[in-house]
Amino acid sequence: MPHAGGLWAHRVCARRRPPTTRHRPLDRLSAAVLLTIAPFAAHAQESTTRLPSIVVSGSVPAGEAARLESTVPVVTITRSEFEALPNDRVSDIVGRMPGVVVSGPPGEKKSFSVRGLPTDYTRVSVDGIQLPAPSRSFELMNMSSFLAGEVTLVRNPSAEYEADGIAGRIAVTTRAIPAEPTGELRLGYGGLYDPDGTARVAGGSYGGRFDRFGLLGSVSYEERRVTKRKDNSEFTFQGGPGNQGFRRNEEEPKDVANLDAALDLAAFYDDGEIHLKPIALRETSDLDKWRDQYRRVTGQFQDRVLTTGREEATNLGLTLDHTHRFAGDVSLRSFANVATARYDTRNRETTLTPALTFASASETESDFDDRTIQAGTTLTLPLAAGVPHLLKAGVVLRSSDRRSDGETYTLDAAGRRSQTAANRLTSSQADYEIEERYYAAFVQDEVSLGRLTLTPGLRIEHVAADLSGYNGRFDTHTTDLFPSLPVRFRLSEDVTLRAAVSRQINRPKFEDMAPGITQRGQRLIYGNPDVKPTRSWSLDAGAEYHSGDLFLGANLFYRRVRDVIEANEISTNTLVVRNVGDGYARGLELEQRVSLAVLGMEALRPLTVFANQTFLDTEVNDPDTGKRPFAETPDVMGNLGVMWNDPETGTILSATVTASGERLVVSNEGGGQIRYKTRRAETFVDLYGEQRLVGGFSVFAMVENLTDKARSEYEVTNGVLSREAVIATGRTALVGGRLRF
To answer: pLDDT tens digits for 82-94?
Structure first.
């Protein structure tokens, strides 16, 4: 149906469709609650060393300088910038970008939200490839930062980018092949304190150019214990003394191991290059959790629940990438990729009586098997039709398959498994298959009008899916047109003004579309094959200033979204995926970085201060709850960092602070009950230090969550306090050595 002056159209077809509900349009904007800003962060300055015996004809700019040249609004952090900060996984890097807030304890920062929108509104690519994952957004906790060469947040895309991902697209690039043979070894040992646990890391990389061939291989191994402790933390206040209402103590230790590897094999010739890039990411988690439950008023012991389990996540990919350059700066880039993802979960839960004897037990198994095959090509054609043009056109084809299988068993006291009728029903409800086919084509023209650059473009995407599961078989297909117009104006060599407008989409996750029921712990989530994609008009406007010693950035953004997708609670622990209404997200992102060299004092030259702050205002016009913010998005957040980086002495010292305001979740529990869950404001402090001792050998130390900050949250249902929780995760320290050769 046409919308917004016919700039785009879409079509949704399904064999069966429930009655739709017309939602009221937004009639006003809610005001943002501005908190006192604690701490902020941006990029660290890239250190360089002048070599007097070499004439340098060009260099790769740091992330900040590169941003001024980009035609689309981006935030880029290079390896030379993030490796001087505390990080183990790519999620640690992303968490310090403006507009990003990460959830999860240190060592397990799995989910993140960008620009006030939940996790599902962001897409992730690795070397230009969107890896398969249970969610459409690959978990950056599953990739070691040791493999990464650069991380970029694309704030508002041009037509050459896939339109899926309204909040933004995080593009991770693995390490580039160095010009000369270069290697690195890294070893570290440490632990989690209060509660106790160990942490070990090891990594190695080697590569270089050898005439017309090149290679770079990187491998990283990490193991750590992540423990969530909930001491006297969960309370239910409804009910009479001793009869209703419970206090629960929980401890959830998890041993996590990651083995990650990436390889780049390249062949170079006069007019182009070919790269073969295999990647393997493997994570295993072993869980051993206990929970004791007491009567809230009398303190009477009720039961003990023991949970053991194992989670395995394996991502494998192989990409062939070819770029050929013709005469006149014409180039053709083509790629082909095959990728698989397997996520297996096994959990056993045993309930003991107040006398600590066996009461009941169950076991669940869940398997996701994903496979993606994709290919594409892009033609870049410079033109001089009165003014310089850079025309790009391309196509992308992708086929994705998902197989989900779940099994539920009942266990006796001896651990023997059997399946009751209820078990078999639950197992069959969790099984589904999805085949999705994606076809896209785009054209864009980068027009240079002196200092002004316009990049109008149009992208068309068609997605068709076949779904089958417990509730039947369904076919869906959508076709969308995505116009875009990034605008860049170079006010001066140091200042860039920019604006961008685009049409974007957020397609539902496979499990949200699945015609069945997904079980997540105690929760049952009903999939919906008829759920519509979320669509948005996206606007950005900002300015950036960059000199050798100073960077300043400001960016305003607005997302007007339709058909927000959420899993709504219709009764306790029962949720249904549906479109809950329309909404918006808007905000202001500020960035600063100053090198104290600007003061002209040689002693302070290595010192840099960097920061960012984000102010957010979001709203969903949900007819069941009324107007409310998007789930778990703070009104204000930021980062602050101080770094001492002296190449002459080989000394690196850095401290970063990450802060976010309160996060609210408003949900409908059914029966007229509205629940307000509030996660209190948080501040985390991390430290990093490195000292070169001799040659290329240095020692390092890192501390995460220095102040031992715990997560604190509470819930109010119909005006009555119904739950409080304090979830402690402890601090992690790591010491080790690094050898560069």
So the answer is: 999 988 889 899 9
